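Box 3.1. Reading complex inputs
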Amino acid sequence: MPQATGAKEIIKPENLVYKRTEVMTPNILHYCPGCGHGTVHRILAEVIEEEAIQSETIGVSPVGCSVLLYNYLDIDWQEAAHGRAPAVATAIKRLLPDKFVFTYQGDGDLAAIGTAETIHACNRGENIMIIFINNGIYGMTGGQMAPTTLPGMKSSTSPYGRDVKMMGNPVKMTDIVASLPGTYYVTRQSVHTPANVRKTKKAIRKAVQYQKLNKGTCFIEVVSNCPSGWKKTPVESNRWMEENMFPFYPLGDLKVPVE
Amino acid sequence: MEKELRLMKGNEAVAEAAIRAGADGYFGYPITPQSEVLEYLMEAKPHERTGMVVLQAESEVAAINMVYGGAACGKKVMTSSSSPGISLKQEGISYIAGAELPCLIVNVVRGGPGLGTIQPSQSDYFQATKGGGHGDYHLIVLAPSSVQEMADFVDLSFELAFKYRNPVMMLSDGAIGQMMEKVWLSPQKERSKTVPEWATTGKPPSRERVIITSLDLDPMAQEKFNEKLIAKYNEIREKEVRYEEFQCEDAEYLFVAYGTSARVCQKSIQIARAQGIKAGLLRPITLFPFPTDRINNLADSVKMMISVEMSAGQMVEDVMLASGGKVPVFHYGRLGGMVPEPEEVMDFLKKKIIGG
């Protein structure tokens, strides 16, 4: 039997192919196994590092699973009330127009309680980036029906499946904001495969660069899984997302800048 | 620079005073009877005068959260509204108090509950002085009784807000907001260039990141934070009580009234004195902190106190507590947007003197 190699023998400069970006703090993420939040946090942090804007960035965290986002990215943060992040970000950007300002919000925060703030910030064309994590469920409070829950989808408040006649239809907020004149770049991505992670990272990088142009709101939806809320393993949840979420929320750009 | 004399509405005076106080931002939403604040600011082009940001928000809810965002950047920011709009702002005000952010909220009070009336009232006293939103917190509450004070209290509000890192409410009413009086306006102050160390500005490598939040999931830590807030409120109670006395030296009957009611009471006192009745007035300028000690002292020398309010009896509870039970305390109020006449206040006093 060969001896197991110790960590000390492996961690050598010549073996180092990947490391945590300095913009991520060493705090341990509180997310469930298989959740997409950690991946989006990491690529956001990487873009902030690569674009050298750490000292220029002010983030606004939401209420929801990512309420503690300020524990993970080493930048200045404001924690907003539920749904109000775009209003908070509006004032930050208007008072500090040279800073890079973004919000990071889930579907309950952005597409239910914060609908007015989302639509009006986008309609005014505030020069902010909005990252919208859409997993079709209220994760933090234990898996209740969200504004984005699919027809027929089960949740703790739609235990027999979402009956659209009784509970209304899921809302495609990204389509709505793409129709507003104030948005400059609107895209829908995911982080469930390495290829998609790279695409999402590219979208975030574009939004950072576009914000310097003062052309309007950049809005990035990330269709995401919720293994705990969906009561599935991480692998099953990703498969379910591909088969059910993507047909309803198709990936790709909804609005790209016209050169 | 000299002060400038103008004839203005109270709402306009607040707006002009905000520009001159060097405010960085105003975020508002129209509602009667205070829409002149936003209208004046839009017309005055403060962006050209001082660089001040003025924005009409999509709702009172958005406006107060814009105030949160601006205040957390260390900026002098404010909003104004009237009663139903102030109710909508309460969530945001609670977060601002919980995150210990300085700001000014002007409430030009109208009668309620519900949509109520657009006429002046003082029925938001409880909401302003006892918390308003959820959780244990206090605003510093200033009660102007003239157009001049609506102007002067803008600067004072920002001073107190930044001194204590606490939201300040100017509790006015529809009468003072709408009426025109002469007002001496202070010279233009420069907008502040200093940034408080607690503000979000983007994190340079030289310091830790700033996190503005009102969240603490650890109950022991949250309790410690609550105790810190209590200590701050106690310091405010100790140092910031403001009031004005009117013919209290020999008064046998004391009116306690603020804002418009205080002006009515001054006239009632004139009528009373002409008839040989020694009446006086204590006008609280700060409603939080309340002039409890002074009222308690006056309870040793007067025979009776009457809290005159355009409400069903709100401040009267604080007057009763302050009096320590030494003298009878009554309430006289008009409701629904009605302003009391000096004579009817006088009649009420007379009735109480003869034991009615």
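In summary: Residues 244-353 of chain B form a domain with the Rossmann fold fold (CATH 3.40.50.920).
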